[in-house]
């Protein structure tokens, strides 16, 4: 028997036998409720992706309508990611301590109203601020959704693998779903109609979730003075202000008078970095930390997060700049862009279905390597793109390779992270998503600086393809580096029969 590493918190899960699909959790009274519960958690994860897909296909239209600069356009997505990333850890702790369903419904209702209010934006600052509000609510639903999914499917089984694979499909479904909504709505009306359509859609999802989401456990903490005293207030301040300052510096640098040398950019960068360092120091001493630092003693945990983050750097940057290229260089309409990016959602669904069947049969280290190779190949193909290059020869294969990279790596990482903190599922989800959000913001900040620098150096216009190609090369470098870390991702097959029995029913 293999000796256990004392620093490895999760351990490997045994593969699933042919007869061990797993029973329906007892808290889900019917197959219909189970389906709608998993669907609701998937749509919770999809919130930010829906908004990103919605806006990225409309950036040129929104920018023209509101008179926005390239930096202000970047802030539509950066503002959402800023608040989302800053509050994920906090909401993870709140969900685990005070109840997941209450926080889940709060986030679903808040997101619906925030998107509706944003549709009436009359200025760049109005839209950018409400993008931040939307990010806040999207942050509040992800930890309770992940946490509830993990606490409901406690038995390691093929059934659990498939539930988590469906959940992981939220990102590609949301992103391209948002683009489809924006393309159709903008084609028949204005960009504002697409926001209102998304609000209506999430009003429906909220009602579905209110019925299907199992009730909170009875051992949740009461919201009283004593429980608040135990809450990690200092850690909350450090992570929120630090994350927000660092993200703001990355987003503002692109449009600042002297770029990265501008005084307020340097100040925000220093403040943000210092506070995040203080956060890590404080978490090592806090009695009830937002982020238990013990998980980082597992070298595989650190390696898999690093690979996931480098992939996120490439994916977030490329999806943003590819959409702008299609609008500004190829002059495609919103509906045409939605159709051109449709292979992402079809491919994403297919990859997630495949992951549900192979996570417990194939080495997950190999799968992470496949994801990094697919990412890098996609970005290299796009870096060779020319203005009149055929869609099927360059863009289509790149989209398919990108979804292979993002969905394979997300499935592996998500399952491993959730198994690392079995008693704090929402906190685990918060840690994972906070770090990936920060990397997404980092990639947008760096790639925007690259775009502006190359554009100025080559005297290019918005319709020239060259500056976009350099952002794709930046993405390829990031995911190329991740390949060097694959040997340290020592994950075998994930998913297997339970070690101990818990109540379940067949169905």
Runs with pLDDT <50, length 5+?
A: 1-19, 498-507
Rg over alpha carbons: 22 Å
Please work out how many helical segments DSSP would assign. Answer: 18
Physical arrangement of strands within the biggest beta sheet = 1-2
Task: Please identify, by name, the CATH architecture of the largest domain.
Answer: Up-down Bundle
Number of separate strands? 2
Strand content: under 5%
Structural class: mainly alpha
Q: What pattern of helices and strands is seen along the backbone?
A: EHHHHHHHHHHHHHHHHHHE
What number of domains? 2
The CATH superfamily of the largest domain turns out to be MFS general substrate transporter like domains
Question: What features would you describe in this structure?
Answer:
This protein is mostly helical. It has 2 domains: 30-215 and 288-491, MFS general substrate transporter like domains (Growth Hormone, Chain: A, Up-down Bundle), CATH 1.20.1250.20; 232-287. Helix content is 71%, strand content 1%. The chain has helices at residues 31-56, 59-66, 70-98, 100-118, 124-152, 158-168, 170-188, 191-212, 225-230, 233-252, 263-283, 299-328, 334-340, 342-358, 364-382, 395-420, 425-457, 466-483; strands at residues 24-25, 504-505. The protein has a two-stranded antiparallel sheet. The two termini are 35 Å apart. It comes from Aspergillus sergii. Its main location: membrane. It is a multi-pass membrane protein. Residues 26-490 form the Major facilitator superfamily (MFS) profile domain.
